[in-house]
């Protein structure tokens, strides 16, 4: 399976349906536009590690920093994003992976300013 390219649901004052989707072992990619966030829901019986990859251009003294990891405790949800340009992959996407996709879902939203 390949990484899943996700199109965010655009928020609205009238409401927008944002359905949870199961993570896959290959992770997801989301647009890095400064208005997108990912909600991770961990329904598993154990913590899940979410990894956000730095892009190849994110360098400190010529070295790409280690990817950012965050543990999401079981039976909780956390919001990730928006991200800075240091997370951009070559196509201005952010790559997000999960340690164990079983019972871990995500929702991707884009907030439009008024």
Report what the structure shows.
The chain is built from no helices and ten strands. The protein is an all-beta fold and 114 residues long. It starts with a strand and ends with a strand.
Largest sheet: 5 strands, mixed
How much helix is in the residues?
A: under 10%
Strand proportion, as a percent range, falls in 35-45%
Low-confidence stretches: none
Arithmetic mean pLDDT: 94
- How many H/I helices? 0
Trace the largest sheet across and list its strands: 1-4-9-6-7
**Backbone structural class:** mainly beta
Q: Overall 3D geometry?
A: globular
Cα-based radius of gyration, to the nearest Å:
14 Å
What are the secondary-structure elements, in order, as H or E? EEEEEEEEEE
Cα(first) to Cα(last) distance is: 38 Å
Number of strands: 10
Compact overview of the structure:
The protein is an all-beta fold and 114 residues long. The protein contains no helices and ten strands.
Write the layout of secondary structure elements.
Blueprint: E1 4-5, E2 9-10, E3 21-22, E4 28-31, E5 36-42, E6 48-52, E7 68-72, E8 76-80, E9 93-98, E10 104-110
Parallel strand pairs: 1-4, 2-10
Antiparallel strand pairs: 3-10, 4-9, 5-8, 5-10, 6-7, 6-9
Name its key features:
single chain, 10 strands, 114 residues, 0% helix, five-stranded mixed sheet
